[in-house]
Amino acid sequence: MSPRALDRIAAALERLAPPPVPTPDFGHASAYVWHPDPDRLEPVPAVDRVDLVQLIGIDRAKQTLLANTLQFARGHGANNALLWGARGMGKSSLVKAVHAEAVAHGLPLVLVEIARDDLSSVSRLLAILGAAAGHRFLLFADDLSFSHDDAQYKSLKAVLDGGISGRPGNVILYATSNRRHLMPRDMIENERATAIHPGEAVEEKVSLSDRFGLWLGFHPCDQDQFLAMIDGYCAAFGLLVDPAVLRAEAIEWQATRGGRSGRVAWQFFTDLAGRHGIAV
User: Fold this and answer.
1) Cβ-count burial of 216 within 10 angstroms (0-12 exposed, 13-18 middle, 19+ buried)?
2) Which of 36, 85, 88, 271 could cross-link 121 (Cys pair, CB 3.0–4.6 Å)?
3) What is the DSSP string of 69-132?
4) Residue 187 has pLDDT above 60, yes or no
C-alpha cells in the first residue's frame, strides 16, 4: 500500500475518532451533570435544594454525612456513602445540602451528578475528574436500583472498589436508593433458590452495597416529625398560621396521600404557601 493511501486512511480514522473531551473550568460552577455520547459535563447554575436546617427528623444522618463530606473536601479520609430507605425522606436533599455546606465553608468541592443509565461511561468521567487538579468531586448517583438482567451495577462495583486503576483520590461517591442492597429482595431470593451455589450467587448481588463504607438508613416519619417539618418550613418562610388550623389541615393532607414523609410535608407547605400568597 502506498504512503498516500496510508495517509488517507489515517486521516479518515482521525475524523471518525471522537475529539478529546475538554476539561471544564470547574471554577465557573459548583455543580455539573454528566452526559455521554458525546461526553460532556454541563454546568448547573443553580442547584435545586433546601437548606440543611430545613431537613428535620434525620439528625443523625445529617451529622454523619456532613462530617464525612467536610473530611473529604478538606483532603482527609472519607467513605463512599449509600443513603437507603423510605422514599421522600430527604436522601437526595441531604446530599445536595451537605454539598452546599462544604461550598459555604469555602472548600473546593464540586457536585457531579450521573444518571443510572449512564454508569457504563463512568470510567471516562473519572478520567476527566481525576485529572482536574485542585478540585475535589462528589459524584452523585440518585435513585439507584438494578434488575436481574442489568449489568450497569458491575461498572459501579469497579469504581467503588476492585478495579485496577481504582477511584481517583479526589472523587467520592454518594448514592441514594430505596433498597438497602440496591436490588429487589425477590431477585436476591431467586438467586438463592435457583443457583448451583446459592451463597455465591447472593454474595455477587449484595457485594455492590458492601463496597459503600457508610450506610445511612432513612425510615418513615411519625406524625410529630411530620408536623415538625411543616412548622420548620413555616418558620423559614415567615408564614404565620393558627397552630390548630395548621395541624388539622396537615393531618388531613397526609391522610389523603396515604402516608407521611418529608416530601409530603413539603407538598403540603407548597400548597399552604400558595394559598397565603407566598412564593417558595
Assistant:
1) buried
2) 36
3) HHHHHTTS----EEEEESTTSSHHHHHHHHHHHHHHTT--EEEEE--GGGGGGHHHHHHHHHT-
4) no
Q: Count the Cβ atoms, other than its own, within 10 Å of residue 17.
A: 8
**Which cell goes with 261?**
414523609
Distance CA 176, CA 139 (A): 12
Q: Pairing relation of β-strands 136-141 and 109-113?
A: parallel
Domain edges within the chain: 31-218, 223-275
**What was the pLDDT predicted at 196?**
47
Q: Is 44 helix (H, G, I), strand (E, B) or coil?
A: coil
- Whether the pLDDT of residue 191 is over 70: the answer is no
Give tens-digit pLDDT for 17-75: 555 556 677 878 999 999 998 889 999 988 988 889 889 889 999 999 999 999 999 99
pTM: 0.81
In the predicted structure, residue 188 carries a pLDDT above the cut 50: no
Fold of 31-218: Rossmann fold (3.40.50)
